[in-house]
From TrEMBL, chains A, B:
InterPro entries: NHEJ_factor, XLF-like_CC, XLF-like_N, XRCC4-like_N_sf. Its main location: nucleus. GO terms for biological process: double-strand break repair via nonhomologous end joining. This is Non-homologous end-joining factor 1. It holds the Pfam family XLF_CC. GO terms for molecular function: DNA end binding. CDD domains: HD_XLF_N. GO terms for cellular component: DNA ligase IV complex. It comes from Podarcis lilfordi (Lilford's wall lizard). Keywords: DNA damage, DNA repair, DNA-binding, Nucleus.
Amino acid sequence: MESTEDPENRLLLQPWTSVCFDESTKLMIKVWFGDAGYALLLSDLSSMWYEKVDTEVIQQRSKELNKRLTAHVSSFLSRLRSLICPLLEGEKSSSTIFSCQLSSSTLTLRVKSELSGLPFYWDFRCSAAPVKMVFHHLVQPLMAMSLVLQSQVQELASLLLRKDAEIEDYRESGATLSRGKEGGCCLHSAPLWDTSFLPSFLPSFLPHGWHRACSLWPLAILTWISHTAAPDY
Amino acid sequence: MESTEDPENRLLLQPWTSVCFDESTKLMIKVWFGDAGYALLLSDLSSMWYEKVDTEVIQQRSKELNKRLTAHVSSFLSRLRSLICPLLEGEKSSSTIFSCQLSSSTLTLRVKSELSGLPFYWDFRCSAAPVKMVFHHLVQPLMAMSLVLQSQVQELASLLLRKDAEIEDYRESGATLSRGKEGGCCLHSAPLWDTSFLPSFLPSFLPHGWHRACSLWPLAILTWISHTAAPDY
């Protein structure tokens, strides 16, 4: 059943992670390995690259790159999976070297390692992903997450208002904060609406250009997607 | 100075809004009008379409579509702006009809209205936007906003913990909530960590597929962009 399913759909179920190939090449990546192929998606936040391969491509490429190695497709896939997974988890291996060559239209991720005691080479040969994939794998999940985070902010703000009302009631009843207790004098907190927290808040760690980008994205439009068809997965 | 600046950069400074052309055609849209041209961007969350025109294109198209009308380019631009702005604000005009024809590679937004008492026709003829524009106009701003919202959630959660500590101190000092006051008995609130609010929360209005999309987007990766070059605007 797995082999008949579109690898792109399987890839949709994988999470994104970020990988640093060298000082100047940091990419977002997601990978899916099946019994008869793999799919790979990479992005540098300006472009996106994709490769989907089946058994035939794996056989051809393994002959081209590893003339001395004869192994079943499943062995190559298993080896590739065992090399890629530590990369995604940020682990470095002294016996495996990854290098990345990219342009706007192609990205080649070169792997140099070993298999059964012999040198093992692999090229992930990705080409520019279509716009539809950028929407499916980045825009739609980001909109969904922004919606969730927006709901969390609203829920937390509402909870804070209830806490403020409770504190106000204690104060009106003449209650005071303990001073003998360590840190007690620091417990007094300003009501939510006295702070300049809401409605806007831009964290200081956000790079300059992102402030502008963010202010141009009205939160209201996010609610639109709640009335939009869900992505097909 | 305005005319020498790239319309795409000017478009980056415009906010997105959503427009409903008919029951089955709801699109996100952003527009920029200058003295010598305009730029238009539309998306249905699967594709993106773009048109950038200068004075020459406006002159040609106005001759093609409005044979009886002779007017300066600035008059056409002014009229188009006065027709598009109410559309973006959700206002309907009985004297203006918009219709939208779209495929994955082209989108034509037809306008039928009047200018100086004569019929006035216009076609916004958009073609598929390149992947880079999807990143600049959607992915990067959405990532920036998700980062801001994530910071807001953390800041609000931290504020709630301080309120909980303050409330706990009042309670330990023997303070009780007023019961005589209207609604006073409802003021008691559970501490933040007693609720099942955090760490995960999925609003019920989110369509089914989005839950999956959202859970596949680790929040941690967002912090990555704080170390990434800011977009060039």
